[in-house]
Amino acid sequence: MTKKKPEIEFAPGCFDDFEGSQEELDALQAEIVAMFNNLTPEELAAKSRPLDDDLLAELIEEDPEIAKRLLNTAHRPLQ
């Protein structure tokens, strides 16, 4: 039996802070979908980085607003 690749769905509001044209947003979304479609699960796992305490501390220093949003939405299920 072959494993079905996960379907990529963008949650409402996930690009609310995107600053660019609709064409640029469409291209970004297409690039994200292509990245997931072109990687094996093993390659995707190798490129992934969990949001652990060290990464969160780094993010708080670099971009406190993004860190705050992540912490406020951590309870939401992934789409």
Give a concise summary.
By secondary structure, the protein is an all-alpha fold. The chain contains four helices and no strands.
Set out the fold topology.
Blueprint: H1 22-38, H2 41-47, H3 53-62, H4 64-73
Helix pairs in contact: 3-4
Largest sheet: none
> Using DSSP, what is the number of strands?
0
Order of helices and strands: HHHH
Q: Which ranges are low-confidence, i.e. pLDDT below 50, for 5 or more consecutive residues?
A: none
Describe this structure in words.
The chain has 79 residues and is mainly alpha-helical. The protein has a domain at 22-73. The protein is 56% helix and 0% strand. It has four helices and no strands. 0% of the residues are buried. The mean pLDDT is 82.
Which labels suit this protein?
79 residues, single chain, mainly alpha
